[in-house]
Design goal:
Largest sheet of chain A: 9 strands, mixed
CATH topology of chain B: Histidine-containing Protein, Chain: A
Structural class of chain A: alpha/beta
Distance between the termini of chain B: 27 Å
Number of strands of chain A: 18
Oligomer: heterodimer
Low-confidence stretches of chain A: 147-153
Number of strands of chain B: 4
CATH architecture of chain B: 2-Layer Sandwich
Helix content of chain A: 40-55%
Mean pLDDT of chain B: 86
Low-confidence stretches of chain B: none
Strand order of the largest sheet of chain B: 1-4-2-3
CATH class of the largest domain in chain A: Alpha Beta
CATH superfamily of the largest domain in chain A: Phosphoenolpyruvate-binding domains
CATH topology of the largest domain in chain A: TIM Barrel
Largest sheet of chain B: 4 strands, antiparallel
Mean pLDDT of chain A: 86
Strand content of chain A: 5-15%
Number of domains of chain A: 3
Order of helices and strands of chain B: EHEEHEH
């Protein structure tokens, strides 16, 4: 087997060696397999079993769609109708019978046929309908693979995909995942975020990986340098194993100091907390020295299953996190679904522009039953430790007051029912919509803290879709406009006497840390992996110098100048070297 | 038995997912083979995928063709569905 070396962007450090497990748009890479003429009937039966299984699954999903979501129902109905589509059935059977191929391959041919047809449509809405068929074929293939999979998913493997959606990563098991390698993506894409939070090495933007790797090929992945080697010979494997050993030694050195607080040399204490999504991450979070959780993403229980979670199920999960991190605070963000994070049973109306559509707090205020259940669970969890509530995507005062009113009602309900909760629970809003930043002074009067969610804030403020490769390069956290917004939010918060936190990816980028501290942020929340490094850096800084740095950065006109300033500043401090040494 | 009729789509959104689903369901309920023809392309009306693939916008001219026991009824029912302005 020939060795191939590819290079991408290392977005989550670490070294992994293992077999490739190839996902294509959420499904396994489908190989054409020829069947013997005498096996046609068996293959046909296999196809029909998959059809039945999928129909049953869809009907099951349908039962659990909450009221008031007719659109979700109609999508499931459309899937069910496609499942019985006479042309789909006939053409698939024809391919199996006449070309003697496996069902998966036949389905992909049908899909490609419609994909070509649909791609020519002028109407963007109709063009998008191909995704309905794609999702259905995914389900069918999963049903087929379930009974006869090409790669045992139980074996730990390196996941290779074009890109990973939140639904994809939610399905992957931490115990069988060694690393992620994707063809698309950037430092801030979902793949990178999940990999860092779970501590897997990840390399994104590896051009050509999908066309060069076959399922089961041995891969060596370095999530720091971005190198990916397909079918490495033994000397390369040795080299990667050696890198892994060195990586672990350096990590251990840092971790020994991770539990100490992050205080600058002139005495400013910065709270360093972790972003967390899964209960399983608690040990990881503690081990990396996090002082609690600055962003608990609560979507997981909603996207990984077909039914809505009950209050008790939510409470169980929240309570585990809250108790696990006591006495540190856990900041629970209420449901942030919609946009690129979806769940089948939450499918709202068809949206041309989901990032600007019915998502997060807007979705919750439209589906009050779901919102109330979550608020009840969060409040009840507050009886077991320190909880802070945070509303995502607030864009105006009205929305915040409405959400607060619901929260108040739920608190009264619990009091009436005699269920305990923390009556002084802290409430905050995420500042991620530019309008919220502009009226931060007004919002500050209504809450106990702000948390700047940089991922969305940057996207909205710069009007950049990070997922669009033609404009993604313009997504720049160091845009002077972004720095001014951060500065404004921090000032508004501090003037009103509340603390201002940051919980986006930006908070965990080592080069930005002195700037963020200089801008006055009180708390940074990041992937647990990054915490030891960030804490070590903060202990070397002077707050006064950081303030001067921030002033200087605010006076510059372009992201390039600001980046140069930050790098030179760190070099001057002789720190960049030590940060780099950590990894080399 | 054979029957046919040409109609113009009046629905504001054209033959979108939901109307296409309704049409395919309706076509499946008749004892007849029903086809839609637009701009020289003929597809099976009982196939939601094929109906969608015709990409019928408002104002598109579509010919309904049916063959079989209930051809006449089927053509009439589908014609009235296609000409329904709002509640397609």
């Amino acid at each position: 087997m020939k060795m191939k070396r590819l290079k991408g962007i290392g977005v989550s450090p670490g070294v992994a060696i293992g077999p490739a497990y190839v996902l294509l748009a959420g499904r396994l890479k489908i190989a054409r397999r020829f069947i013997r003429p005498q096996d046609v009937d068996d293959e046909m039966a296999r196809f029909h079993r998959a059809l039945e299984l999928t129909a049953r699954e869809l009907k099951e999903v349908k039962l659990h769609i909450p009221e008031g979501m007719p659109q979700a129902l109609s999508i499931i109905d459309a899937h069910l109708l496609m499942l019985r589509d006479p042309v789909l059935l006939r053409e698939t059977e024809k391919l199996i019978r006449n070309r003697l191929v496996n069902t998966e391959w036949a389905l992909i041919q049908i899909f490609e046929h419609y994909k070509r047809l649909f791609a020519s449509f002028e109407d963007p809405y109709l063009r998008e309908r191909i995704h309905d068929l794609e999702q259905l074929i995914d389900r069918l293939i999963m049903a087929l693979q379930g009974e006869d999979s090409y790669v045992a998913p139980s074996e730990p493997a390196i996941i290779v995909a074009r890109d990973l959606s939140p639904a994809d990563t939610a399905r992957l098991q931490a115990s069988t995942t060694k690393a992620f390698v994707t063809e698309l993506g950037s430092r801030t894409s979902h793949t990178a975020i999940v990999a860092r939070s779970l501590g897997f090495p990840a390399v994104v933007a590896v051009e050509g990986i999908l066309s060069q790797v076959n399922p089961g090929d041995l891969l060596a992945v370095d999530g720091f340098s971005g190198e990916v080697v397909i079918n490495p010979p033994s000397e390369i494997i040795e080299e990667f194993l050696d890198r892994r050993r060195r990586y672990h030694v350096r990590k251990a050195l840092l971790y020994n100091k991770a539990k100490r607080p992050a205080v600058t040399k002139d005495g400013r204490r910065i709270a360093i907390r972790a972003n967390l999504e899964l209960v399983d991450e608690i040990p990881l979070v503690l081990e990396h020295g996090a002082e609690g959780v600055g962003l608990y993403r609560t979507e997981y229980l909603y996207v990984t299953r077909d039914t809505l979670p009950t209050e008790e199920e939510l409470l169980l999960a929240y309570r585990q996190v809250v108790e696990g991190l006591r006495p540190y605070p856990v900041t629970i963000r209420t449901l942030d679904l919609g946009g690129d994070k979806f769940a089948d049973h939450f499918e709202g109306p068809e949206e041309i522009n989901p990032a600007l559509g019915l998502r997060a707090i807007r979705l919750c205020l439209k589906n009050l039953d779901i919102f109330r259940v979550q608020l009840r669970a969060i409040l009840r969890a507050s009886a077991f430790g320190k909880v802070r509530i945070m509303f995502p995507l607030i864009s105006g005062l009205g929305e915040l007051l409405e959400a607060k009113q619901i929260l108040g009602q739920v608190q009264e309900e619990l009091t009436r029912e005699g269920l305990p909760f923390d009556e002084n629970i802290q409430l905050g809003v995420m500042i991620e919509v530019p309008s919220a930043a502009a009226i931060a002074d007004l919002l500050a009067k209504e809450v106990d803290f702000f948390s700047i969610g940089t991922n969305d804030l940057i996207q909205y403020a710069l009007a950049i879709d990070r997922g669009n490769k033609d404009v993604a390069h313009l997504y720049d956290p160091l845009h002077p406009g972004i720095l001014r917004i951060i500065k404004q939010v921090v000032s508004a918060g501090h003037e009103a006497g509340i603390e201002v936190f940051m919980c986006g990816e930006m908070a965990g980028e080592i080069y930005y840390v002195p700037l963020l501290i200089g801008l006055g942020l009180n708390e940074l929340s990041m992937n647990a992996q990054t915490i030891p490094e960030v804490k070590a850096l903060i202990r070397e800084l002077y707050y006064r110098e950081c303030q001067v740095l921030a002033q200087e950065a605010l006076g510059l006109a372009t992201p390039e100048e600001i980046e140069l300033l930050l790098r030179e500043w760190l070099e001057h401090l002789d720190l960049e070297l030590s940060v780099r040494q950590l990894w080399n | 038995m054979k029957a046919s009729k040409t109609v113009v789509i009046l629905n504001e959104l054209g033959l979108h997912a939901r109307p296409a689903a309704k049409l395919a369901k309706l076509a499946q309920s008749y004892k007849a083979r029903i086809y839609l023809k637009k701009a020289g392309r003929t597809v099976e009306a009982a196939s939601i995928l094929d109906v969608l693939s015709l990409a019928c916008a408002k104002g598109a001219e579509v010919e309904i063709l049916a063959e079989g026991q209930e051809a006449q009824e089927a053509v009439e029912a589908i014609a009235s569905l296609l000409q329904n302005k709002d509640n397609l």
